[in-house]
Amino acid sequence: MFHVKQLHATTEVVLRVMAGEASFDAGLAAVVAYQRQFNGPLAAYWKRRGFTTEQPTAGEVPAVMTDLFRSVRLTSSEAEPTMVFRTSGTTSGARGEHWRLSTTAYDAGAARHFAAMVLPDGERRRFVKWCFDPAEVADSSLSHMVADLERRFGIGAAPWQLSSEGLRAEALDELSALQEPVVVFTTAFALSWLLERLEAPVALPAGSLLIETGGFKGKSREIPRDELYAAAQAALGLPDTAMLSEYSMTELSSQLYSRQVIDGLAGAAQRLLVPPAWCRVLAIDPATGRPVAEGEEGLLRFIDLANVETVVAVQTADRGRVTPDGVELLGRAPGAVARGCGLSVEELRERGDL
């Protein structure tokens, strides 16, 4: 049975949170209630953990490890999804799948946070897209997002320049023809590929912004982010403030964008990731599964209200610190993540559910 009314009603609550018309806690209660009623695997896990709270805080919701998306369909009990986003699967074999019954909250949240963090003046920009065409890679959440953002904030429709072989040759020619400020969306791999092939620096028009989205997974060579950004600044004539990081993943619906914050102790600029108001980030102690104190290192957990019909609490293996100014990303945790952080594939196998 398709729970149209319940899904629509829950999504409307989340949209009100995004618009500042409802509190995060109200949105969390609505999403938890929906998922408890209609997402069978998640509801069973919550019940085993004794999670019955109807008005939970972000730290009370039991989380699901990202690796579980490779083994279990984690969405409410509907026949067919509207869209399925998939991970690359290049480092672990099986591809994680995020089954979506609707992208309404995803699209609305992505647009709202992009506007706040990237184009706060409400202007429109030409997009430069060094990522895959969604017509060719229909299961890419990044390509879906960039396409929707271009429709909302772009000028015209720019070509998609990334293929499985790297950036298309036209991408190099496109740079020298640019005359107005642009927004460049690029994976880290595409950016490094371009920098290796530029024979001479090509300055982007003044006021341009470059948004790096990650994406070295499965590639033979990974460049440290500071080194990649320094090379891009020199090659493309961009100031440091024009280099933005975008952080998200297939298992989430919300994105974090970087901003420069001055470290009060060191007096140096620090790049922190800022989540939207409808996505709370916690740093979790892998030994206890509980949140650590503000500013202490832990494994990042996301309570993402835009995951309306899937999994509201997602546990990652990314290390970081959560501060009032944003999230400091510290890299991946070495080895396996302690099971206390969230439901994992191993736990399901031990119980015989897989």
Structure in a nutshell:
It is built from nine helices and 15 strands. The protein is α/β, with parallel strands linked by helices.
Question: What are the defining features of this structure?
Answer:
354 residues; alpha/beta; 8-stranded mixed sheet; 5-stranded mixed sheet
Q: Please compute the radius of gyration using only Cα atoms.
A: 20 Å
In quaternary terms, these chains amount to single chain
Mean pLDDT: 86
What fraction of residues sit in β-strands? 15-25%
Describe the structure.
The structure is a single chain. The protein is α/β, with parallel strands linked by helices. Helix content is 29%, strand content 23%. The strands form three sheets. It has an eight-stranded mixed beta sheet with strand order 6-5-4-7-8-9-10-11, with helices on both faces. Strands 1, 12, 13, 14 and 15 form a five-stranded mixed beta sheet that branches. The radius of gyration is 20 Å and the shape is globular. Residues 342-354 have low confidence and may be disordered.
